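#lab-general

N.A. 3:47 PM
ok so I finally got the sequence cleaned up, no stray characters, all 593 residues accounted for. can someone with queue access submit it? mine expired

B.Y. 3:52 PM
send it over

N.A. 3:53 PM
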Amino acid sequence: MLAQIEFFFQCKKLFDVEVYIMNKEEPHLSESGIAESSRRAFILRTAVVATGLPLSIGCDNKNHTMPGRGDFPLLEFSLQSDKEYADPFWQVEVDVVVVSPDGKKLCIPAFWSGDKAWRWRFAAAQAGKYSYRTIASDSENAGLHGVEGEFEVEAYAGDNELFKKGALSISQNKRYLETADGDPFLWLGDTWWMALTERLRWPQDFKKLTADRIEKGFNVVQLVAGLYPDMDSFDPRGKNEAGFPWTADYAAIHPEWWDLADRRIGHLVDAGLMPCILACWGYYLKKMGMKKMKAHWRYVIARWGAYPVVWCLAGEGSMPWYLSKQKKEEKAELEKGWTELARYVRKTDPWQRLITMHPSRSSREVVRDPAVLDFDMLQTGHGDYRSIANTLKSIDAAVKVEPIMPVLQSEVCYEGIMAGSRQDIQRFMFWSSLLNGCCGFTYGANGIWQVNEKGKPFGASPHGRNWGNTPWQQAMAFAGSQQLGVGAEILRSLPWEKMVPHPEWVSPRWNKANYHQPSAAGVVNEFRIIYTPSLWSPPKLTLLEQGISYKAKLINPSTGEAFALKGVTADAKGEYHPAIFPEQRDWVIVLTR
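B.Y. 4:20 PM
back already:
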């Protein structure tokens, strides 16, 4: 990616270039709630050097949308229309063709940012000199069409892992996600569906939650771009400080909403949390129609495609509106529509970010052609221990489906939902998911996803049911979030990406008669990981290789505290039976050579 930036702006049509090098102070809010960033402005016609600071280049005075601190390697350019339009969002479309140092061309969508201004954002995959030329649907508008320039980028020298390691891709064996430098990426996500609303206040609340999740080891946040679940269109619970992302009846984009959302997306990335961005909840496709949903997705890509993100087409994509009386027909319509949208996103996104779908059950079931997706997400229930059977069955089936793709547990048993699913079930679901073939896990805390405030909870969904009133500040401290971080740390210390489910390596083991039993995974002759829920007696380790002595640890999955197990070698039957555990509870057993 990029970092310290030397920018050389050479336009065929000469004009003054405004360069904003934003300092580390927080943006201040005006009475309208719009950010007014503290900044230094320079009017130049020549070269600009920015070292370790976010950079914004343009010809207007409205560049208040960039992240406000840190080494954030993202360029933003502004264009100023020569014409007035009655409906600029729909009347003009602008793309920018960027030619990279190796001659590769990227077609980058620009976005209307209000009044006569358009912007486009860029992050480079390699160092060197770039050139660009704008293409507008109105070729007579010299301010938007045919604007040309060059800029030079140096290699990224910062310490943000999202930029250092590069964009996510799919591993060669199609089983897990990896970064551009080839390192495996163990996804530990958190669910913040409504985090872009004003109920999670900026900056104090949003930054507090971000810091907590970074400390606990999370690296992904799943959130929705303004068209939220569990509410109808333009429900006041879905506002941010500037209102809604669209004007009434979805007539046009409301840029001020997106300007404020930029601050939050930028802060997540600056902190090292990768946004997994859902454009909407699935039923909005029918509410808005295909044309407007494509426009919504194009705007999402134009705003955030240059960031290190993952695209999630929609939440519960084929789920009809809660109160629909034609659910079967609408489900089929949504499956067809989201398949078309997936192809549109792939075609429109020059960065080729990974694409998935948050489902009611499996991403594959939401689209007519699974090839439009890069990896499969699962949702397997919120029934506490009652959801264990469906979870294990769903994972076991998903990892075997052809064509193979990575499988990720994206929603199961939010902690605290319906006053249940506490930390014990969180640990069970995490370890059972990862040891049976999932390449990542998304946690959720009831109270955070809908942003309950003390004395002012989210309230009822359209179907009239209320999922719980726990304030988000209390939910943030639920023990499960910390304990899943412990689990991720244990796995990241091992070559987890190589492990294969081996349920036969432990007895008793989970099976169709009893899904509450231990799980095991690893690599023959290399390492083994066994998760055992609380049992009266420790399970047997089975099918051990003869003549191999393993280094073995017994790890408390709540704290990470480890105890050595000595003399783990196979008996004549290829088995090893641990003594009584130090405490009657669940444990993780790790065997390494």
